[in-house]
Amino acid sequence: MDKDLNYYLKLPWSYRFEWSDEDKCYVASVVELKGCMSEGETIEEAVKMIEDALYSHLSACLDAGVKIQEPLKPVDYKGQIPYRTTPEKHYKLAKKSAATSKSINKLIDEAVDAYLESA
Asked: pTM score, two decimals?
């Protein structure tokens, strides 16, 4: 399948919108595409502007033959993360696991959940 502009425009891009006190506007960016940014005085304007910026960015990349980093897809992840740590941390996890009657994987998963909720 040829990956043309229409293909890339339909991908589930992640957008970030932040207020800039310095510039007195909303700064919009496409998370997956470094440098693909725009701004607007309102959120609505920033949305329109980032859509235009995405179109221009993708067009320029395709014209120049630059590889386009596609958004992450949930189906690409199976839930298995090889994790290495120090013997001391492993021992502490095993002790905590035994004390709480939870598996080491469950303890690590709870720690990751807590981190992601706070981020």
From this structure: 0.69
